[in-house]
Amino acid sequence: MSEAMTKTSTATSTVPIHYSDLWDGIARAVPERLAAATADDEMSWGRFRDEAAALAAHLRSRGLRKGDAAATLLYNRTEFLVFMWACLAIGVAPVAINYRYRAGEVRDLLLDSSSRAFLVPTSLSALAVEAAAGLELEMITVDDGGDAVNGATDYRALLVGGHDLLPAPRGADMRLYTGGTTGRPRAVVWDLDTLLVARRHSTWGLIGAEPPADVAAAVRIAADADRPRVVTLPMSPLLHGTAQSATMATLALGGTIVMHAAARMDVGAAYELIGRYEVTRLIVAGDVLALPLAETAEKAGGLPTVTSVISSGMRFSDEAKARLHRLGDLTIVDMFASSEGGPYALGTSRSAADLPAPLTLTPDAALLDEQGRELPLSAGTLGLVAFRGILPRGYYGDPVKTAETFREMNGHRYVVPGDWARARGDGTIDLLGRLSAVVNTGGEKVYPAEVEEALIEHPSVDDAIVFGLPDPRFGEVVCATIAATVPVDVDDVISSVGERVAGYKKPRHLFVRQSLDRTQTGKVPLARIRADAAEELAVRTAGART
Q1: Nearest CA-CA partner of 121 in 185, 156, 87, 73
Q2: Right CATH number for 19-192 from 3.90.550.10, 1.20.810.10, 3.40.50.980, 1.20.1250.20?
C-alpha cells in the first residue's frame, strides 16, 4: 500500500469496529435472540457464537493464521454465516466461491485465493474432491444429503467442547470475488479495519441511528429491545456482494437473517418464510427475482411486513418496482455499486408515484474525463463514474489490474470500474454502460444501456443485452441478443429502436433466444452470449453467399 493510501485509510477511520468483536458483544448481550433461520433450522445468537468459536478453533488447530484464506461452496445456510464469522475472528479471509461453477473453475479460485481450508456441502462432494485434488487443503463437509468425503472433517463433529473467541486481529482482510462475467473473477481485498467505517451509512443509517464510536456503543444499539428488529431475507446468494454486505449489516444491528436453504431459489418457499418470520428487508437481484416475487405475493396477500427492498447492479425495471410498491408500504433502494466500492449512486422510491427514480450520485462519487479530471455535473456532461470514499486495497495478487482500476489522482484515490454516465444537471445520472462494453462503430461510441432500454420497451422483448461484433467496414457493429417467449418480428423490433435512438445505435444484427440465462444474481454470461451470436452470424453470412 502506498503512503498516500495509508494516509487516506487512517484519516477516514475512527476507532475500528470489527464485525467479529461486535457480533461477539451482541451474542453475549442477547444470547437467546434469533440470529438466523431456515425452513428447518433456527439458530440463536448464543449458538451462532458457539459454532463460530468452535470452527475458528479448528481452523487455528490446522495452522491457519491471519493473512491466510479459507473457501466455501455453500449456498445460503446457517453454516455459511458461521464460516464467515469464524474466519473473521482469526483474521482469515473468507472466500465464497460460486457453487454453480464447474470443478476446473472452482480449482482456479482455490489456487488464486491461496485458500488453505475448504468448507463444502456433501451434495457437492464429488465436485469438491475433483477441484481440490493434489492441493493441501483442510476439507470440512456440511451434511446436506450427499456422500461423505474420505479424510474430510464433519462440521458437526467440530461442535464439541467449549471454545472462546479472542478479539479480532488488526490488519486482516476480506476477499470478495467479482462475478467474472466478462473476464476471470478477481478477489477484491477489503481492509477489515475500515470496512465497517465504509459501510456505516448502509448499516446504521438505514435504521436512522448515528454511527457508533466504538464496539460498546454498537452493541447497545443492537441490544436495544425498544428498537424495531431488522429481519432480512437475502433472495440472492450470499456470495453476491450486495447480499453479503446487507447480511453483515443486519447482524451488526443484532437482527435476524432468514434464508431459503437451497441451491436454487424457490420463490414460493421464500415467500412462506417472509410471512413466518415477518421479514422486514428483502435483498433481490433486480427483475430476475423481483418479478417472480411480485407475482407470488400478488396471489398470496402482499408483503405487509416488508419495509425495504434492496437491489444492486442489475436491471430493476419501473414495472417491477411499481408492482412491489402496490404490495406494501415499502422503500425500494436500487443501488449502483460494485465489489470494488461505492455505492456510486442510489435510485430510491417510496411509492409508485416516485417512479421513475433516477440514480442520484452519492457524495463521494464523481464523473471523470478520460484523463482523470473531475467534471462539472452540468446537464449533458459525459464521463466515467468514479468513487473516492473508503476503498479496498485492490485486487488480490493482481497489481496491474489494481493500478488500472484504483487510481491516485487530484489528491484522491479513486475506484474507476469503467462505467460511463451522462449527468442530468440535478445530481442524477443516466447510466450508459461499461467502457469495456462500449461499441465503437464507424468512430461513433454506442453505450449498451440506452439501446437495451429501447429494446425492452418493445412488447415482444422480455430481456436484452447489447454488444459489439467485428465488422470489416465499421470496425464493430451494434448487435443484440433478446429474450422472448412469443414470436418476434425482428424488423419491427429494430425499427422501434430506431424511433428512440440514433440510427447508428440500432442493432445491425439481432439474435432471439428464450432466455439470456441470467444467474441467480441477475448477471448475464456476456462472453458466451457474444460467442454464440458470432457463431450464428457466421452461419447466416455463409448462407447468404450460397
Answers
A1: 73
A2: 3.40.50.980
Least confident of 108-117, 195-204, 340-349, 442-451: 442-451
Q: Nine-digit cell at 254? A: 443484532
Q: Which of 230, 246, 236 shows the shortest CA–CA distance to 26?
A: 230
Q: How many whole angstroms separate alpha carbon 250 and alpha carbon 247?
A: 5
Give the model's pLDDT for residue 12: 37
For the domain spanning 364-435, the CATH number is 2.30.38.10
C-alpha 371, offset from chain centre: 29
User: Helices 241-252 and 19-29: crossing angle, nearest 10°?
Assistant: 40
Amino acid at 190: W
Cβ proximity of 57 and 101 under 8 Å: no
pLDDT of residue 7: 32
pLDDT at residue 461 tops 60: yes
Q: Is 531 exposed, middle or buried (0-12, 13-18, 19+ CB in 10 A)?
A: exposed
Residue 496 in grid coordinates: 422501434
Say if CB 198 and CB 212 are below 8 A apart: no
Q: What percentage of the chain carries pLDDT values higher than 90? A: 70
Could you tell me where the beta strands, DSSP code E, fall in 124-177? 138-142, 153-154, 173-177
| Domain boundaries 438-546, CATH class | alpha beta
In this chain, the answer to whether the domains covering 19-192 and 438-546 adopt an identical fold is no
> Distance from first CA to last CA of the chain, Å, rounded?
60
Query: Domains of the chain: which residue ranges?
Result: 19-192, 255-357, 364-435, 438-546
Q: What does the pLDDT look like over 321-343, one tens digit per residue?
A: 999 999 999 999 999 888 888 88
The residue among 544 and 186 whose pLDDT is bigger is: 186
Amino acid at 526: L
